[in-house]
Write a structure and sequence with these properties.
CATH architecture of the largest domain: Orthogonal Bundle
Radius of gyration: 27 Å
Shape: rod-shaped
Number of helices: 6
Number of strands: 0
Length: about 120
């Protein structure tokens, strides 16, 4: 894992990604509306403006920001955009379990009562 911010070269990350996905500089430049040699310059820069990264993400339909996040240390905090929904789903599940447990108790009492009457 990376130990400091100097180890992350955004241009190299983009270069490897574009190569892996099979995109040419010209294709990306056209898709993001930038003049020729722009992508070449981006690949050589250690840092790139967020708006340019967003344009490239949309052009290649790939989340470069996640790739960057994956390069950060594991002990960094993260925001889970689905945290509230997960918590609500967990609470609903726990509520349903509690309801079923209560229903189970009632049914056990009823079964015991029927067994006494029958037996």
């Amino acid at each position: 894992m990376k130990n400091n911010k100097q180890n992350l070269h955004t241009g190299q990350l983009i270069e490897k990604l574009l190569y892996r996905l099979g995109y040419s500089d010209a294709e990306i430049e056209k898709a993001i509306g930038r003049p020729g040699s722009s992508v070449y310059k981006y690949r050589k820069n250690a840092s790139i403006q967020t708006s340019i990264l967003i344009d490239i993400c949309y052009a290649i339909k790939h989340n470069i920001f996640q790739d960057i996040a994956n390069e950060l240390p594991d002990d960094f905090t993260k925001t889970d955009k689905y945290a509230e929904e997960k918590a609500a789903a967990k609470q609903a599940t726990e509520n349903r379990i509690a309801e079923l447990e209560e229903e189970n108790k009632i049914l056990k009492v009823q079964v015991d009562l029927l067994m006494k009457i029958k037996g």
